[in-house]
TrEMBL record:
EC code: 6.1.1.6
Presence of keyword Ligase: yes
Enzymatic reactions: tRNA(Lys) + L-lysine + ATP = L-lysyl-tRNA(Lys) + AMP + diphosphate
Record's protein name: Lysine--tRNA ligase
SUPFAM superfamilies per the UniProt record, alphabetical: Class II aaRS and biotin synthetases, Nucleic acid-binding proteins
EC top class named in words: ligase
Similarity comment text for this entry: Belongs to the class-II aminoacyl-tRNA synthetase family.
Entry keyword annotation includes Cytoplasm: no
Length: 590
């Protein structure tokens, strides 16, 4: 913007005493001043690092900000009335644009400073939101932002017809959406501008935007009002543009290998394909409970039974569990299944998907994630869970006997020093050697897997849908992909023996029901009922139709599920899953 640091309105600075000045009402020069840099910097510092003394006045400050916000809204509502009284509708129907801001910046990138193109062939029409403005005397500068970028509007009183310049000064606010047309000019200071000869208010904004210095810094509010977050912080919108690129590249990669995209039910009669607490709903017409899916796996396998050989689905998954920086109750995965292949094929596919997405979004295979350099060049490390546990803890599970108690003693002796009580309890509660191996892996190994690593050959006890390992008894042909200490993908050589599959799922149901029984409400000694483990209280049922499908015969196959949200986090350097989901699930606002 010409000679101007970007300035945005904020409820935190719009005090009733200076509202008339801020909105250009009754000022002698019409000047809308920028914030003092020193004061703004001090305010920004105080916002980020509030002192203990400031905490006591939080409620008062919140009340003041709310009243200021309502005062701004009241003034803008009066402007809506003024516009309508002049015969101008402040909520337009359409605007014909000739260019986007980015297109103009590209077309006229070689225009010299001070040069102006006033011929009909250089007459342009644009539209977008006003994010900054400065008006004085007979000249005004506005910054217009559209989906592609920003461009300056250069407004002269003599050039605008009738009373449009006065309307611009008194009725146009930051946050309004305008359409403008005019010729092209580059100012003496090098700012490409549309020299406006007419404009129209397309949408009158009633609420003030956050200002440049304070921005929208309340994390909860950023997630809750993502639309404001994207206006105040354009880089946030860039994350969702990159997410769209990643989704497009995933489809392109798998379809280039002959995979067909299919859709499977979100509402299911049995929540299968994973061990997770489902959301339950009730269908009035059918008179039955239904579950939001916790995986797409079992229906995709039905497609293989039906004759498809390569299928995939990108879809939302719903799990009624905890919320963290890595977990959201609804999230997006891609699951894919390929007949006549094993889990080795899916390792190649995982490498291909991640590297192609990295190149599409970042143009390189060396990326930075939260200060850690990640090397995505292929091939990635492939190592068994047994070897990784031995490498980190010194415990060789292949040498342990079948005595679970002895195995736990060996593990606690090797790693017990400094182990917190929660992890120690988790180890002591393991019902089998396979569960113990996995628990040790999750506690000690998983956080250390920063570079891409395929962890192979999981215990059969924790892999009810995976094929038994063809060489190692008690293990399955399964891998998980870890990057930055986080699971990114999970894959199997799929279990196709219907009798083995039924036995394993029935065992899983029995184990869950036992855990559920132990979690039933008990008396805590005061007569009050207290739940031991509420997350274990959901019901698990067999998907008999899936087992019936297997009895018709499913070809040998491999399958993989890959978390798209976590992949987007990795490739956009986002610390929380909420940063890559446009509207994440949040607690009710108090």
């Amino acid at each position: 913007m010409e000679g101007l640091k970007v300035w945005r309105l904020s409820s935190s600075i719009a005090r009733p005493s200076n509202l008339r000045q801020l909105f250009g009402l009754g000022t002698s020069s019409g000047l809308v001043r920028c914030l003092d840099n020193g004061a703004a910097a001090a305010n920004a510092t105080n916002t980020r690092f509030p002192s203990r003394n400031r905490r006591a006045s939080t409620s008062t400050s919140t009340s003041t900000n709310t009243s200021d916000r309502e005062a701004v809204r009241a003034i803008r509502l009066k402007k809506v009335e003024q516009l309508r009284s002049k015969g101008t509708e402040p909520y337009g129907y359409k605007w014909d644009r000739s260019h986007s801001a980015k297109e103009l910046q590209e077309i006229y990138k070689d225009l010299n400073n001070g040069e102006e193109l006033d011929s009909e062939s250089h007459h342009v029409s644009i539209a977008g939101r006003i994010v900054a403005r400065r008006a004085f005397g007979k000249l005004a500068f506005l910054t217009l932002r559209d989906d592609s970028g920003t461009i300056q509007l250069y407004c002269e009183k003599e050039r605008l017809l009738n009373d449009q310049f006065e309307q611009l000064k008194t009725l146009v606010d930051i946050g309004d959406i305008l359409g403008a047309s005019g010729s092209i000019k580059r100012t003496e200071k090098g700012e490409l501008s549309v020299k406006v000869d007419s404009f129209s208010i397309l949408t009158k904004s009633l609420l003030p935007l956050p200002d440049k210095f304070h921005g929208l810094t309340d994390i909860d509010k950023r997630y809750r009002q993502r639309y404001v977050d994207m206006i105040a912080n354009p880089e946030v919108a860039d994350i969702f543009r990159k997410r769209a690129k990643i989704m497009r590249e995933i489809r392109k990669t798998v379809e280039s290998r002959g995979f067909v995209e299919v859709e499977t039910p979100v509402l299911q009669g049995a929540a299968g394909g994973a061990e997770a607490r489902p959301f339950v709903t009730y269908h009035n017409s059918l008179g039955r409970d239904l579950y939001l899916r916790i995986a797409t796996e079992l229906h995709l396998k039905r497609m293989l039974v039906g004759g498809f050989e390569k299928v995939y689905e990108i879809g939302r998954i719903f799990r009624n569990e905890g919320i963290s920086t890595r977990h959201n109750p609804e999230f997006t995965t891609i699951e894919m299944y390929e007949a006549y292949s094993d889990y080795q094929s899916m390792m190649d596919m995982a490498e291909e998907i991640v590297t192609q997405c990295a190149l599409e979004v970042n143009g390189k295979l060396t990326i930075d994630y939260q200060g850690t350099e990640i090397q995505l060049q292929r091939p990635w490390r492939r190592e068994t869970m047994h070897n990784l546990v031995k490498e980190v803890t010194g415990v060789d599970f292949t040498e342990l006997e079948d005595d679970l108690k002895v195995a736990k003693d060996v593990v606690l002796k090797a790693v017990g020093l400094g182990l917190d009580s929660k992890d120690k309890s988790s180890i002591e509660a393991c019902p089998s050697l396979g569960h113990l191996l996995n628990e040790v892996f999750e506690i000690f190994v998983e956080p250390k897997l920063l570079q891409p690593t395929f962890v192979l050959d999981y215990p059969i006890e924790i892999s009810p849908l995976a094929k038994p390992h063809r060489r190692h008894a008690g293990l399955t042909e399964r891998f998980e992909l870890f990057i930055c200490g986080r699971e990114l993908a999970n894959a199997f050589s799929e279990l196709t023996d219907p009798l083995d599959q039924r036995a394993r799922l029935e065992q899983q149901v029995r184990q869950h029901n036992k855990k559920r029984a132990e979690a039933v409400s008990v008396t805590d000694g005061t007569g009050e009922q207290k739940n031991i483990d509420e997350d274990s209280m959901y019901e698990v049922t067999l998907d008999d139709d899936f087992l019936t499908a297997l009895e018709y015969g499913m070809p040998p196959a491999s399958g993989m599920g890959l978390g798209i949200d976590r992949l987007v986090m990795l490739l956009t350097d986002s610390a929380s899953i909420r940063d890559v989901i446009a509207f994440p699930v949040l607690k009710i606002s108090q």
